[in-house]
Design goal:
With about 220 residues, the protein is mainly alpha-helical. The chain has ten helices and two strands. The chain is globular, with a radius of gyration of 17 Å. Keywords: Signal.
């Protein structure tokens, strides 16, 4: 993605005058879902997800409102990313996804300490800079490291099927907006965190090609 496209998406996310048109404003719509995978650990269990899904309708309405008021017309890449997250929430709250989570929830829980250890190694010093660019890079890198550490740790402990399940959760919930807006920043992040599992890279590359060339 070129610099102009990145700035276009970045501007849509950080919007101009309304405070709720920021990345945090968008992520606030998913405040009940975000703790399922966070620096505090992997808490993706059937019970936790089922309880979170009780507020899914409000989350979807909040995302829809964000799209209507904050995403510029013609920004198909960001709109597509947001729509995929909305579709995922509906899928995640369905019986099949809940049953799949139940199958791996014990392994997710047991993998949590290793995930936290990996993620904590990637944390930046407190002073990352006060300018917008430095803060934006820090946010992008924090997400990337959380995603990579969680996916790789779970694959090592639970297998690729479990890691793919967790990755869908992270990319669509924690990564809403960030997956596209941070694309040109990810390469600047420290390599201290784990790379995505090599077995998942073909899937990720195909997903990226589909997202950015077809939308």
């Amino acid at each position: 993605m070129g610099v102009i496209k990145t700035l276009f998406i970045f501007a849509a996310l950080l919007a101009v005058s309304q405070a709720d048109c920021s990345v945090d404003g968008l992520r606030c719509c998913l405040s009940e879902f975000l703790p399922l995978v966070s620096p505090a650990g992997i808490r993706l269990t059937k019970e936790n997800l089922n309880n979170t899904c009780k507020v899914a309708k409000g989350s979807l309405e909040c995302i829809e409102d964000f799209s209507d008021h904050c995403v510029a017309r013609g920004n198909d890449i960001l709109e597509g990313n947001i729509n995929k997250s909305k579709a995922f929430i509906i899928t995640a709250c369905g019986d099949n996804f809940l049953e799949n989570v139940e199958e791996y929830e014990d392994c997710f829980t047991n993998s949590s300490p290793s995930f936290q250890k990996c993620y904590n190694k990637t944390l930046l010093p407190d002073a990352v800079g006060n300018d917008d660019e430095a803060m934006w890079k820090a946010e992008c890198c924090a997400y990337k490291n959380l995603r990579n550490c969680a996916v790789q740790t779970v694959e090592d402990s639970c297998g690729i099927t479990a890691s793919e399940l967790l990755q869908k959760e992270i990319v669509n919930i924690n990564g809403i907006g960030l997956e596209v807006a941070c694309e040109d920043v990810f390469h600047e992040c420290s390599n201290s965190g784990m790379m995505l599992a090599s077995s998942l890279l073909p899937f990720i590359l195909l997903y990226a090609l589909y997202t950015f060339r077809i939308l």
